[in-house]
Amino acid sequence: MTTTLTKPPGAAPAAPPPPRPRKPRGRFTPYWLLLPGILWLLVFFALPMVYQASTSVQTGSLEGGFQVTWHFATYWEALAEYWPQFLRSVLYAGAATVLCLALGYPLAYLIAFRAGRWRGVVLILVIAPFFTSFLIRTLAWKTILSDGGPVVSVLNSLHVLDVTSWLGLTQGDRLLATPLAVICGLTYNFLPFMILPLYTSLERIDGRLHEAAGDLYANPFTTFRKVTFPLSMPGVVSGTLLTFIPASGDYVNADLLGSTDTRMIGNVIQTQFLRILDYPTAAALSFILMAAILFIVTFYIRKSGTEDLV
Predict the structure, then answer these.
(1) Rounded to an integer, what distance in angstroms lies between the CA atom of residue 203 and that of residue 197?
(2) DSSP H or E run through 307
């Protein structure tokens, strides 16, 4: 005898079993990719920072050794003694940044909108100085600004040095060992750091915006003021930061092109580390410089209206 199994009328078919959840693959891949960079920052940034912080609160001598005594007064003593060098570094770096912006913006504008097929050649010329040592480039400026060179002769004939001497930038009829020589060296060495971000920002501007401004009867100056410059502000902010930050801690230009009256805070830190061997003071000066730069940069970014870069 056989039996036949029949479903009751109107019954829904049996649902298939739900698929078993598959384990996600590659969930930790981004973390593995970040691991080399994190290790690099830990070994070459975080650990040296911790060591420098520990050094800044030590007392002792090189012969007897240094010990951590939490002597925070080192910060105040270093700032009270070397505040002129701090102020001079900010002024020199600020002047060099303004000059780099004044020189770099027209060149970046030319490359972005007027260079045409020569754009690549001009960009290569901008970055070409990077193929030469920073020290060699600074020594070249020492030859260019020498007392018997053509630059000093031309400026003397035009009585330009009389004006700069009245402003306190030069001394008499010479350029070397003056604040102006240090500022010129900083401007030259860090000018590419200003041009490249400016070019990148200007190159992204849609040319049709300029055409639209012209259709609305805007003259070239109004187009630049209302369209070009506001849209290039990210490049301006990036370029000024990339110029001001390394220039404020530079010591090569002040050492080779300046004198004892133009010493910057970088020269003081170098002397404390390598000559006087006062490691706590040098470490304290380094942290004060870093804190000052962070404060200035944060204030500048917020005032420029680009808080998203913080």
Answers:
(1) 10
(2) none
Residue type, 64: G
Tokens 């930061």, residue located: 241
Q: Which residues pair with 66 in a beta bridge?
A: 60
Residue 271 burial class via C-beta count within 10 angstroms: exposed 0-12, middle 13-18, buried 19 and up: middle
The Cα 110–Cα 285 span in angstroms is: 41
SS3 category, 170: coil
Average confidence (pLDDT) per 10 residues, the chain, 310 residues: 52 62 68 90 92 90 85 92 94 96 94 88 90 91 88 90 89 89 94 94 88 85 90 92 94 92 93 91 93 90 64
Contact 63, 272 (CB under 8 A): no
Phi-psi region of 67 (alpha: psi -120 to 50; beta: other; left: phi over 0): beta
Residue 59 in 3-state DSSP? Answer: strand
Distance set, CA 66 to CA 62, 71, 278 (Å): 7, 12, 10
Rounded to whole angstroms, how far apart are CA atoms 137 and 130?
9
What is the pTM assigned to this prediction? 0.84
Give which of 59, 56, 99, 63 is closest to 79, Cα–Cα.
Answer: 56
- List CB contacts of 166: < 8 A, sequence separation 6 or more: none
Largest CA distance in the chain: 128
Task: For Cα atoms 142, 146, 152, give the angle at the middle one, nearest 5 degrees.
Answer: 125
